[in-house]
Amino acid sequence: IAATGLLNGDATSVVTAITFSGSAPTAGVGAQTISILSANAINYDLTFGTGTLNILARPLTITAENFIREYGEANPTFTATFTNLASFDTAAVIPGLTFSTPADPTSNVLDGGYGINLSSGTNVSYVAGRLTITPAPLLIELDDLSRTYGDTNPVPTASIATGFKNTDTVAELGLQIATSATPATDVGTYGYNATATNPNYTLNVTGGTLTITPAPLTVTVADLSRTYGDDNPTLNILALGGLRFPAAFGDVVSVVNPTEFTTDVGRYAFDVTLLDANYTLTATLGEIFVTPR
User: Fold this and answer.
1) How far apart are CA 278 and CA 269, in angstroms?
2) In terms of C-beta density within 10 A (0-12 exposed, 13-18 middle, 19 or more buried), how is residue 31 classed?
3) Is pLDDT at 273 greater than 90 in this prediction?
């Protein structure tokens, strides 16, 4: 307080038991009048004046909260937190508080996400948030295919794709389909795998089985003859057709002469065994004629 009319070196401390009337904590920014309601001072007859209380704007920081949504979906309703907001106030006291982001349902998945910005009609501090867009799940069903051993791999198509967002199609996926099987891969069943260069989707792949079937192989063995008691002549393989890769005859087919030099006179059919499961065999087999000596 300030006082005028003090005598004999008295200080303002002689004035005691002062009570004031003034603004409530909820009073707005600006100059508020302060009045003295009562006070005591020995040796003085007190007259009260008024003062001014200047209420300053309270520093406030508004922070946009972070959000996550899936690609192709609408943006969520954004919210914020308020730091240093008076206990008796709510967000409603911030006029014109608005959120903005460059992201919309067509925005791509992006490392780091998109900013969530704030603005209002008040002079407060803002902290931007982040909107993270995650890939949408996409079900891809690949065709099941088959080929013959030794042939090149056929390329399956995505016959069913479920989960596209916006107006996206298979053509926009950057779909890459591959299998570990090569033309030389053995007969069996193998899977295709699909990946996409489009970051907006996470693929769930079903189907896509490649079945490799045996290749047809033919062998023709000519007739032979010999005299009883002689050694067997060398087999005469007239033709081996359908071999898909270079290989020794004995690694693929075994042809056996069932006779030996003591075998009786007669006609005997050659025996043939397929040794490579990557083929199916059609054999045209001759006979060996053992003639009298």
Assistant:
1) 25
2) exposed
3) yes
DSSP the chain: ---S---TT--GGG-EEEEEE---TTPPSEEEEEEEEEEE-TT------EEEEEEPPPP-EEEEPPEEEETTSPPPPP-EEEES--TT--GGGSTT-EEE-S--TTPPP-TT-EEEEEE-SS--EEE-EEEEEEPEEEEEEEPPEEEETTSPPP---EEEEE---TT--GGGS-EEEEES--TTSPSEEEEEEEEES-TTEEEEEEE-EEEEEPEEEEEEE--EEEETTSPPPPP-EEEEE---S---HHHHEEEE----TTPPSEEEEPEEEE--TTEEEEEEE-EEEEE--
d(CA 285, CA 89): 102
| Cα distance between residue 126 and residue 147, in whole Å | 64
Token pair belonging to 40: 């005591």
What is the spatial distance between Cα 23 and Cα 132, in angstroms, rounded to a whole number?
Answer: 46
CB atoms within 10 A of CB 131: 22
CA distance 67 to 78: 8
Predicted model pTM: 0.69
Instruction: State mean pLDDT over 39-46.
Output: 91
> Distance between CA 201 and CA 170 in Å, rounded?
11
